[in-house]
Specification:
heterodimer, A: alpha+beta, Rossmann fold, four-stranded parallel sheet, four-stranded antiparallel sheet, B: alpha+beta, D-amino Acid Aminotransferase, Chain A, domain 1, five-stranded antiparallel sheet, 8 helices, 16 strands, 28% helix
């Protein structure tokens, strides 16, 4: 077995995970890659101290899975939802095992809230991070405002007032957003506002070592994405390089 | 004093709370999820703090509410007159539910319970680890889909082994049997195996700082599924009751249900903490005033729980497949 084997759970075409695999390879580390849909079919064994997958002890994990992804492709259709819930519950617990380090290592509150942008926004605001202003529900808003659906967080045109009322829609000004990459509590590229840096540190303390933070030009946080994709090649290279180094060092240290 | 009853108007706990509120002469508002934006609505503006609730001709500031009791349906109806199918239906109901969660996380009054409370209940191994960390005695367990590992674990449990769902989906607890072994052999999703604890079942409901213990007497492994189960008030040690209250509070829960197995030599094993406990059967049979305690909580103005580091209110689900394992095709 190689000196460091990191478990990656990600879609086969996940560019960020592929970049991390390359970075690990340059360091001499190896990867055991599992696609989310095959998770329920893997042989697993979890106790309070250890987690084994396919008979091998898991130490370091890159977890690029969302609660909406199918996790049980090999199962009968009428069993898939049940099997997916069971396997998600197993991995979420496993990633919190003290012997395992994971990016990201979501707590139950975050995972079962769907990892949605609004969830992180509210949690950061409750912790004292400045956030952009939003109006919710049937409150009147100017016509040039935007609506960010809770399920996607992607700004889009306002629905009509009746629709806003039945969905308790969250609406906000059309503000240009700056995307910052947060890796293990540090901003790798993007905003230099201290509020964004504090948000990155808090996210890391909550187990989110990798995120994209969208903020307004003043640094007020608007949206958090915890399975981020970075279009900027140099930012992506920096992120995957930093993550690869961290995962390699962590895995090596846990073996020794 | 005005309280709100939010969610599923057919839920018995909501009906019961409204009846108790009437007896006390408390004003209450029914806020069905299905009629949000039709019969009632709310709005708030985070910047200047404008927060308003309107129901019929009534309008009041959200800060004027004394408390909100929440029971959400796993399959909430669409608003009257709206027809959506497939993905549009799913997206709409998710959006609306998230909007309600946003409201419940934002209001300053006590909420029983906020959606962020007790979420670890949806991952039994995670919750068992957390309960042990909180000082409870938890039976030994593993999660596996390996027959070999299951047999090895069972070999170390002379009192026997039960199995149950790993997630929050409701399942019947059973003694490890040939059916499980067959499923493990054929290939299935991971299952919780836990050392069987012989003894009596006790449910401890916590409401704020108060604890109510009920003993359930049945002849089966899982009293919830037995045709004949008797409920009676039970005594719980003050220190353990305090631990339950402290743990629920730390998880952001004003109402919680702790399940215990109590051995003949009075060892209390904690099996789980339910963030949306169905307290009515226990109250109806034992006479413990759990519903009244919820109203007391609203009357006395309990504060919003402190910002939490984890866990959440997760809906209980109706009985799904009663089998705890899923078959691979």
């Amino acid at each position: 077995m190689p000196s460091a084997e990191v478990v990656v759970v990600a879609q086969a075409d996940d560019e960020l995970a592929l970049g991390v695999r390359q970075a690990l390879g340059r360091l001499g580390g190896a990867v055991a890659w599992y696609r989310p849909p095959e998770l329920a079919g893997l042989s697993v064994h979890l106790s309070e101290q250890e987690f084994h997958v396919e008979g091998r002890a898991v130490r370091t994990v890159l977890w690029r899975v969302s609660p909406e992804m199918p996790l049980a492709e090999g199962f009968r259709e009428d069993d898939r939802a049940f099997a997916a819930a069971e396997v998600a519950a197993t991995w979420i617990a496993a990633l919190k095992t003290t012997g395992i380090s994971a990016i990201n290592r979501f707590d139950a509150e975050a995972w079962y809230s769907g990892l949605r942008p609004q969830y992180w926004r509210n949690r950061l605001a409750a912790a004292g991070i400045a956030v952009t202003a939003i109006r919710v529900g049937s409150h009147p808003v100017p016509d040039d405002w935007l609506w960010s659906p809770y399920t996607t967080g992607e700004p889009c045109p306002l629905p009509d007032p009746k629709a806003r009322a039945v969905m308790a829609s969250a609406c906000h000004r059309a503000t240009p957003l700056v995307t910052s990459a947060a890796v293990r509590g540090r901003i790798v590229g993007g905003s230099r506002e201290s509020n964004v840096g504090r948000a990155a540190a808090l996210l890391d303390a909550w187990g989110v070592g990798l995120a994209a933070i969208d903020s307004d030009p003043g640094g007020r946080v608007h949206r958090i994405r915890v399975l981020p994709v970075f279009d900027n090649a140099s930012v992506r290279e920096q992120v995957t390089s930093d993550l690869g180094r961290y995962l390699y060092d962590d895995c090596t240290a846990r073996r020794s | 004093m005005t309280i709100a009853l939010l969610g599923d108007p057919d839920d018995l706990a909501i009906a019961y709370l409204s009846w108790l509120a009437d007896r006390r002469g408390l004003e209450w508002l029914l806020l069905p999820e299905a009629t949000l934006g039709v019969d009632w609505n709310f709005s708030f503006d985070e910047a200047p703090g404008h927060c308003e609730l309107r129901s019929g001709s009534r309008s009041l500031a959200l800060s004027a509410l004394s408390g909100i009791f929440v029971r959400l349906s796993p399959e909430p109806p669409l608003p009257p007159g709206l027809a959506l199918e497939g993905l549009a239906h799913t997206v709409f109901t998710h959006e609306r539910r998230e909007g309600l969660y946003h409201l419940l996380q934002s209001v300053p009054c006590p909420v029983v319970n906020r959606p962020s409370g007790g979420r670890a209940n949806a991952s039994k191994p995670l919750q068992m680890a957390e309960l042990r960390a909180a000082g409870f005695t938890v039976p030994r367990w593993v999660v596996t889909n390996s027959l070999e590992m299951a047999n090895a674990f069972a070999a170390g449990c002379p009192r026997g082994v039960i199995y149950k769902a790993t997630s929050g989906l409701r399942s019947r607890v059973r003694l490890m049997d040939d059916d499980l072994r067959r499923r493990l052999d054929e290939g299935t999703s991971p299952t919780v195996l836990q050392e069987y604890i012989p003894g009596r079942d006790v449910r401890v409901h916590t409401v704020g700082d108060r604890a109510f213990a009920t003993e359930m007497v049945s002849g089966g492994i899982d009293y919830r599924f037995e045709s004949i189960t008797r409920y009676r008030p039970a005594a719980v040690d003050r220190a353990l009751a305090n631990r339950c209250c402290d743990t629920a509070r730390a998880e952001g829960l004003l109402l919680a249900g702790f399940d215990f197995r109590v051995t003949p030599d009075a060892e209390w094993y904690c099996l789980e903490m339910n963030p949306v406990p169905s307290f009515l059967p226990y109250e109806m049979c034992s006479g413990e005033p759990i519903g009244e305690a919820v109203l007391d909580l609203f009357s006395h103005g309990c504060h919003k729980p402190a910002p939490r580091e984890g866990h959440h209110g997760y809906e209980t689900r109706p009985p799904h497949a009663l089998d705890q394992t899923a078959a691979r095709s």
